[in-house]
Design brief:
The chain has 390 residues and is α/β, with parallel strands linked by helices. The protein has 18 helices and 8 strands.
Length: 390
């Protein structure tokens, strides 16, 4: 059921996320305006909407009639005054460039009504980096969605009002999604922060000779009962997306080392155009990737070493997110369970392992792939020291 105070939602940027978010809103019954300065980009949206709807139609979560009615609620516009002037909520999804986003946010504020809530869908930038571009920060927040995953992060800007956040929580629920209202901003929010350690850890394990692509995915699938291993997941997300996420200059020394290793490993795939499922080849060949075959995990003697290394990396990041005061353990666990379709969250795994085993695994994993800075290692160790012993 739509919110009475939000009748029209404007999505700025007609890329994949702009189209996806606008489709979800239209399916929920909202009047939608998709705004883009490029007529060429707007002309390509029909095919994008069709592609985005295909998995939903195949899964039976929507019907063809649902999709048809939703598309009737979508209006395309290249005029800022018309598109933004009638909106009650705006979602910005332009390229992940700080200066560009700040410029676009100023345009949005100049054209929208005083009551309109302005949000950014950024996945790489912090909301505090964008807030000062606006005169009125009370109605500005990050509203970050995940493609095909019913989760949405909500993070208020430094001046964001409580009523703005409360409205956004109700809006997300009206989309039939789970709102993740975070206590404070954090790089990657929740799911992306955990995924970052998961995927980066997998790459470094291969780059450092700890295992092969197939061995790592096989170990994860066999012991986690998850739907995808890390390399299959990166093929789904797109290898170029992962590569680009490390493109920005890193300030921390440990991140600079990781960035160099990850970029060097992924660069040949990018140069060849082997970018994942959409190109027919990435870490695996598609449409019949070996990891998708039942026999991929039929060997019952698959060692747990690589699975535990990845799980340890995820638990480490979960502890850091919790230690930073971003979210409680329950929300962190539920985010991971929902986000990767898995049965156990990181704190549940930690509880089952016990702190003694995790402490040993944490030291071994850090020695092998060094995903954390010395300060972060100390924070993790501090958590371990005060954790209840079995």
């Amino acid at each position: 059921m739509t919110l009475p105070e939000i009748k029209t939602v404007c999505f700025v940027g007609s890329g994949t996320m702009g189209c996806y978010n606008s489709l979800i809103a239209a399916l929920a019954g909202y009047q939608v305006i998709l705004y883009d300065v490029s007529a060429q980009n707007l002309a390509a949206t029909d095919s994008k909407y069709t592609q985005l709807a295909e998995p939903m139609l195949a899964a039976g979560t929507i019907s063809q009639q649902d999709f048809t009615l939703a598309m009737q609620r979508v209006t395309l516009s290249g005029d800022a005054t018309t598109a933004l002037g009638s909106a009650d909520l705006v979602s910005e999804s332009v390229f992940e460039q700080r200066d560009l986003k700040r410029k676009v946010l100023k345009v949005i504020e100049n054209h929208c009504q005083p009551h309109c809530i302005i949000t950014t869908n950024t996945s790489a930038l912090l909301v505090s980096e964008l807030d000062s571009a606006l005169e009125d920060g009370g109605r500005f927040a990050a509203l970050h969605s995940y493609l095909s995953i019913p989760l949405m992060d909500i993070v208020g800007g430094p001046r964001c009002e409580t009523k703005t956040l409360q409205t956004l929580v109700r809006y997300v629920k009206s989309l039939h999604c789970q709102p993740l209202l975070l206590n404070k901003e954090y790089p990657g929010y929740l799911l992306n922060a955990l995924l970052g350690s998961f995927l980066t850890g997998a790459i470094l394990l291969v780059a450092n000779g700890e295992g092969t692509i197939e061995e790592i995915d096989r170990a994860w699938l066999a012991h986690s009962n998850g739907a995808m291993g890390p390399f299959g997941l990166m093929d789904y997300i797109g290898i170029k997306v992962i590569y680009d996420s490390w493109a920005d200059e890193k300030t921390e020394a440990y991140e600079q080392v990781i960035s160099k290793r990850v970029s060097a490993y992924l660069k040949p795939f990018v140069q060849r155009g082997d970018l994942g499922m959409r190109t027919g080849k990435g870490f695996y060949g598609y449409p019949h990737a070996s990891w998708q075959a039942p026999e991929f995990t039929q060997n019952k003697d698959i060692p747990k070493r690589l699975y535990k290394a990845l799980s340890t990396a995820i638990i480490q990041r979960a502890i850091l997110v919790y230690d930073a005061g971003v979210a409680d353990r329950e929300m962190i666990d539920q985010t991971w369970v929902t986000g990767v379709s898995i049965a156990k969250g990181p704190f549940t795994m930690l509880s089952e392992w016990g702190v003694t085993e995790f402490d040993a695994l944490s030291k071994t994993t850090q020695a092998a792939i060094a995903l954390c800075s010395e300060e972060q290692v100390n924070a993790i160790q501090g958590f371990i020291d005060i954790a209840p012993q079995p």
